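Translate structure to sequence.
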């Protein structure tokens, strides 16, 4: 499959092969050690790893977190596997894309107000950018932050209606829920309703879902919070994937998602 095949939706089988070949799923770059460290941090109550969700004392057993991640993300279920390679099941990735497509189609049918945001501007922005363009073309209203909003030590900006964090002259990676908190607070101050749907990742998605907003998100296998949020009903869908491969590798996945939702492909 050509690396820039953004305008031709692959079949499910072809997409699974592509996900494995580009390591968006299958044998991913994130190590088992890193995954287990993050599961432990979430279970021990480190809010940095909660992504803006309020998990209380419901996920204090690391074994429960691992079981959930094996079920919903496809990491190795064996608790004795402590070092080396870990995995994301590409079939689970495509299953989640299909569920996300249903949510996107409903948003279009309802002419919803949609907010898109990413904490991975060097990777997932490519996905959000295409979704934003397709949703706008299909009649949705895209919600963008007001000027001069700040969170997590940076300024919240939007590019092609995708909200991101700007710091020290560049768009930066962030897990923080603070930027989404600031956007929603600003909307409330201005007398505007919250968005009908949020499409995001990291703390952008976690905080929105925790506020009761319909939210779909993307998450890596070392980011358990959004999978926990989906299990508890705070998020509608969490798509498991490596969230920071070269952005052109996401083009077939994005094309598949748009086609499944009945949305126009990017030009």
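Result:
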């Amino acid at each position: 499959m050509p690396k820039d095949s953004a305008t031709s939706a692959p079949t499910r089988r072809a997409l699974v092969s592509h996900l494995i070949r580009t390591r968006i799923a299958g044998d991913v770059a994130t190590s088992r050690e890193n995954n287990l460290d993050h599961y432990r941090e979430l279970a021990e109550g480190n809010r940095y790893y909660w992504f803006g969700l309020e998990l209380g004392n419901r996920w204090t057993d690391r074994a429960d977190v691992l079981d959930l991640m094996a079920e919903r993300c496809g990491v190795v279920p064996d608790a004795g596997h402590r070092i080396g390679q870990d995995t994301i099941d590409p079939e689970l990735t495509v299953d989640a894309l299909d569920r996300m497509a249903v949510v996107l189609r409903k948003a279009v049918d309802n002419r919803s107000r949609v907010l898109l945001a990413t904490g991975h501007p060097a990777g997932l922005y490519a996905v959000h950018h295409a979704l934003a363009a397709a949703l706008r073309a299909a009649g949705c209203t895209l919600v963008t932050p007001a000027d001069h909003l700040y969170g997590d030590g940076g300024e919240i900006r939007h590019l092609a209606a995708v909200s991101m964090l700007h710091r020290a002259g560049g768009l930066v990676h962030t897990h923080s829920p603070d930027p989404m908190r600031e956007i929603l607070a600003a909307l409330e101050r201005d007398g505007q309703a919250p968005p009908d749907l949020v499409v995001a990742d990291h703390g952008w998605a976690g905080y929105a879902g925790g506020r009761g907003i319909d939210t779909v998100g993307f998450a890596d296998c070392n980011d358990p919070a959004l999978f926990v949020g989906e299990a508890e009903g705070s998020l509608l869908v969490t798509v498991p994937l490596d969230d920071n491969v070269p952005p052109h590798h996401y083009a077939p996945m994005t094309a598949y998602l748009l086609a499944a939702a009945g949305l126009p492909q990017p030009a």
